[in-house]
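Bug #2210: token dump truncated for Aspartate aminotransferase family protein?
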Amino acid sequence: MRAPTIIPPDCAVRRSTTTHHLLSDASLPAYRQQMRQAVDAVTEAIAAADRPFSGVVPADLRPLVESIDLDAPLDSMPDALQEVRELYLRDAVYFHSPRYAAHLNCPVAIPAVVAEAVLSAVNSSLDTWDQSAGATLIEQRLVRWTAARIGFGAGADGVFTSGGSLSNLQGLLMARNNAVEAKGLVGLASLPEKLAPLRIFASTSAHFTVEKSAGLLGLGADAVVQVPADPHRRMRIDALEAALAAHADAGLVPMAVVATAGTTDYGSVDPLAGIAALCHRYGAWLHVDAAYGGGLLVSHRHRALLDGIEHADSVTVDYHKTFFQPVSSSAVIVRDATMLRHVTLHADYLNPEGGENPNQVDKSLQTTRRFDALKLWLTLRTIGADGIGDMLDDVIDLARATAEELRQDPSFELAAPVQLSTVVFRLLPTGWDDDTRVDRLNARIRKSLFAAGDAVIAGTTLHGRSYLKFTFLNPATTLEDVRAILAAIRSAADPMILEGGPRG
Ligand SMILES: *Cc1c(COP(=O)(O)O)cnc(C)c1O
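Reproduced locally. Full output below:
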């Protein structure tokens, strides 16, 4: 039973007109109306977008944005939304377009977008129970659900974060403190001295946040030992073993190995089980960066790529990549919940020690924090985990079919076999043996496609050479769409090839 209210409902002494723009009783009809207007505006913009990008350049758009007088508000929401259409929606990059195949951005699950409206309106903050109530329990439940999918036992825990960058940082922070505690480094004078012998091992294809984290954690980016990758762009086990042995012989401490389950560039998955065995042998923390490959946890046909992930100490999962969630939505999951103590601090006003309610801030680097978990919750409760897995399997199939298509075409060269949904390749016209010319051709193809807006693709380099890249995360993209993009690539290249190759 709810306690009766003790505050009379008409106790407000003064209401300024601006409170009518805040979510409170007086503004509820306006809220309802404005939400509908916003949904209509964005729906129309999405329906009108017949290609992934308009090709707009900053010089076109900047004057429009600059011309707005931010100190002179418009009279109505429809006017303001019309302005947003012109400044943003008309020229946005649309990830739901079947011809967007550039970065790790996904078209978003509708239930997750609905959840955005709910969580922003209520505005819960996940730092403490007394700012969130059920939201805290929902997040905890999803952390346990993810941990169970990983194969962790009952002792696991974790927390939602803003993204893989923060999840990786927190994983490595726990690894660092664990190493300092566990490896007999306590006798040394100060923290910097304790940190000096620590090393992190990651493949040459690992995400740059590993080095950034090493810097932030006081180790310096050169504490990251780069382990060579095989032709599939997976960490070489023999090379890792040699590096661990050499560093141990030199008296250095293997603080952590970062294995990547889905490298950003190639979608390659490091051999997790073999890496886990070496971590066990050398007493190194295993952090699995599954920011990209995390969706394999619900895949029907490709879950085996993650075999061995259950031996990790910490795992990064970006739901805003392969779970089709809007940014931001990520988590760091730990096998041993007690490791989260490495980020626990108590403040009397917020989360006093010995409090009886669950306070997620005890486990997080963030304080005020969005209820991003509601998006995944509503997605699992409607589309379901199997539905997400189906969508991911579809894009993996598409990537493999695309690779097959490229293999059959002598004018293209595939950089590496496809594992997830990424295809790295380049156009290599017959008879072109000057690498610099080939580089310029491929770089210019990408630019020309982006400028036209008909297709958006990415680029990268391999061994110093320029390549093109497809990252597929749209289950609505078909092989026909891919063929259309390949045709666009060829026609962008034709004039350059005819003029004897780009010369500068
Ligand atoms: C995307 C990505 C990250 C960074 O995650 P954000 O959510 O962008 O912060 C880290 N590691 C890998 C492998 C990634 O693909």
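Output looks complete on our side. The chain is about 40% helix and 15% strand. Marking as cannot-reproduce; reopen if the truncation happens again.
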